[in-house]
Amino acid sequence: IASAVIGTSLPCFFPQVRFARVAAAVGVLLMGAFWNSFGSVMHGWHSWIFAAIVFAMLPSGHVRATQSLAWREHYLRAFTVAQAWVMLGYTLSGIFKIAAGVQQMANGQAGSFHPEALSRHTAYRVLEGVPEGSVNIAPWIVEHPYIVWPMYLAFLFIESTAVIVAFRPALHRLWGLLLILIHICIYFSLSVMFSWQIMLVGVLFLCSPIAPNRAVSLREIALKFPLVGDALAWLASRKSSPREQTANGGIPASAR
Asked: Full-prediction pTM beyond 0.85?
């Protein structure tokens, strides 16, 4: 444990040195192995280990505007890989929930898309003996299934499309905030705390170096919003195509 703590603390003093970041990756791996060696799996360590390994691949040197274009591209690519990996975990979780819901619907069962899905799952967890904290909204969720149902559908959408957001910097801070709020709600309803994941999402997305260094407008959010923005872009391209053909004598741009 001591060696892991020392290794993970080195980048705090020497973030520009790759050796320090390699030592941190090894330290995180050792800590993850230690905490997962007691008979249960702590999934929160998985993303941290991979992110630490990716950060070890960041180029050496301080982040400055005077760095070469190749250096800055290398830095941004490595950071984007770490972001995409974390979001891929959320997307896989959402897709599995949707796939299970479709299968349950086909079998005539109350699945992920049923209005009482979240309430039933919460009630099941409470019957399992979930420890109650000082604030617990589980009884309210069970008693108001139709109020929380739209929230659960929004949760499925946020999870399933997370990996798309990794490549849309304008949405980094918004999606990071939404994911953190989801984890907080899970804690207050099911007493399952994702503190490690909250910290990682905060570092990678709320503090994303790729996100615009300004306030993002609602129009920009709508144009970048997963599926919605893609549909708007497709409709815009469909509307502009006839105009382009008319301007070019009816000859599409691709045929010229």
From this structure: no
